[in-house]
Amino acid sequence: MTEIYGANVPVSKVQLRIKLSNLVDKDTFSKSDPQVTVYCRNSTKSQWLEIDKTEVIMNNLNPEFAKPIEVDYFFEEEQQLKFVVYDIDDFTGKNTSKNDFLGEYITTLADIVNARNKRIKGRLLKIAHGDIIITAEEVSDSKKVVIYKFSAKKLDKKDLFGKSDPFFAVYRRVSGNGNDNLLLTYESEVIKNTLNPSWKKKEVKLAKISNSNIDEPLVFKIFDWNRNGDRDYIGEFETSIAELAAFKNKEFDVINVKKKAKKGRSYKNSGVFISEYCEVKEEYSFLDYLAGKTNFNLTIAIDFTASNKDPSNPSSLHYRNPSAYNEYQQAIYAVSRVLEVYSKDKQFPLYGFGAKFNNRVSHCFPLNGNEMQPKVFGIEGIMNAYAYTLRNVILYGPTNFAPTIKKVIAECEQKERTEGKGTNYHVLLIITDGKISDREETIRSIVKASFLPISIIIVGVGNDDFETMNELDADEVPLRDGTTVMNRDIVQFVPYRAVNAANDPKVLAKQVLYEIPEQFISYMKQNNIAPKQQMNPENSFISEYTPAFNRQDSFIAGKDSSFVLDPNASFMSTQSTTPAANTSTSRINSMYSHTAAQPYNPYPYAISQPSFPPPQYQNSVSVTQPVSPNQSVSVPQYQNSISVTQPVSNGSVSIPSTQAPQAYVYMQPPPYGYQVNGANPYAVPAYTAQAPYGVQYAYQYQVQPGQVQTQPQSPQSPNTSTTQ
């Protein structure tokens, strides 16, 4: 019998319900007979695989299909979905070429379940008109959990100088190639130095432990844990969730098969396993909280210590390869492209540690150079800030995790004070090449973080010894800070090369993210936080934000002509002056092409000088040097100075003809990846149909002493000014 490890268990199972409207009519003497075929793939490199089809609805341009499409939802995967609509003319299925194409729609399952009320609207593509509404409903069995309290007594002694360190593992029987195999579905915590362990009351998803079947035969195996990673077999027994739930304090003999065969009738057991309590219960699920719009905040911390070697050296883990990502870049991209969709504002704090930054060694410095606002926008901002930092810091040391963990703790506590508990959940991604220097302080910080809505992911790159990281993972032995034991398991460590991430980057995302939903649910339940009330379905929406896989079709830089995340690119890229009639493909070319990149500007808001100020602004002050926020522009004719709140670079500040203490700065739309004066980028109609890409926007920044007000104006054609 073979034991299989690493079962890929979905977070939930959802049904997708589809409604279409305003379809193109392809039939001459009647209306179209639509049907939707749904395809799925896990990356842009893989093939589309058909999941299922809806029924055919006859003679209808606004069909609502009764048959749902059932899909397994994996938080840690990028599950791309394609909905293709056909007017069915061949009902036999023998000659599908007769069917007429009515459009298609591509999104991700994460986009759907993360939308308000798990409902999105979209326009069918590659066709004149047509709309689609997709609603996700969670299958009720996905919400069921098993709550248990187990113990054991008189287990066999396995340690030479002690007793045993027992834990139990649960296996489900699966068939394959004519063999009966055991699939590992769950492991308990370790209880140290005892033959009579009492495990904590815990819960596990029914879908994970028994494939949502309470009658599924399960094999419980009890092991003795060893520090070197080995496990000594104590014994096993077989049962089911239904049997465990039927009786309290039910006892099972723990049988060591080899020992029984050797001793024969004289063998009784290797201990007794006691099911004190077991219950199957339906509770709030991860998707319930997503529907309530809980926001995920990703923070990234990158190791810039000297052990990584000089970035210009091809053997460096930070090597600046013009045609491929290094291990740091691949790890950043693999994780952030999955988590990006769960963030409301797509803004991510980005830190480095272990480098000389601004002529001093820093253990937590912002990669964008802004201590007050360390966030960058989107994957593009993350990747380009990293590339810029490599050229502007000196790799140094030592490797300290605690300062960054404390930063996340402080941000988490501040958000809980201002927005309330349950509104935000924080994920810290740390990428490092070896041992840490502040072990005790890091453990202390992790223990504190375990009481907060925080998960920590550690990715080890290179071939160094990661023994300390395995200790921080704490899957078997919880971390302690004095007498305080960590409240819950919040750390997941994965060595990059061990999972062969270079050949299949999405494997890394699976490994580091699959525990996040359970850690999230654990925090919410411990703090009795219910999902927030869902909004009216009629208010459901999907953001204009484009998913990562639609912005880049190739993982490796330099492989895709339409969009390149250049490892050597700066923060900004020049905006195109392409006419409004440009296609979306041209728009992507102009927005992301690194060949047009500008030199890095620490104040990344390009301010353009208008052709002339509006009539009420008869005077202007030229700015020949960059002006940072909160600096002043001298106004000699008024013997005054005016404070600016947005950076100015070779633009102008227009002064009103009256001597009021205010000024207006003219500005183009910001480059992709940046906010405008703290406003939500989605609220800025820079890329909507009403104002095609290439048409300038004029933003007025009204600056008054002690007060700042932002007044976005209506879009204008180039060389046209604003009037009040």
TrEMBL record:
A Pfam family annotated for this UniProt entry: Copine
For this UniProt record, give its keywords in alphabetical order, as a comma-separated list.
Answer: Repeat
In this chain the C2 domain maps to 1-124, 128-254
Report the SMART domains cross-referenced here.
C2, VWA
Q: Which domain of life is it from?
A: Eukaryota
Q: What Gene Ontology molecular function terms does this protein carry?
A: calcium-dependent phospholipid binding
A biological process from GO: cellular response to calcium ion
What GO terms fall under cellular component here?
A: plasma membrane
Q: Which PROSITE patterns match?
A: C2 (PS50004), VWFA (PS50234)
Q: What residue stretches are annotated with the VWFA domain?
A: 297-473
Q: Which family does it belong to?
A: Belongs to the copine family.
Q: Kindly provide the name given to this protein in its UniProt entry.
A: Copine-domain-containing protein
Q: Which organism is it from?
A: Anaeromyces robustus
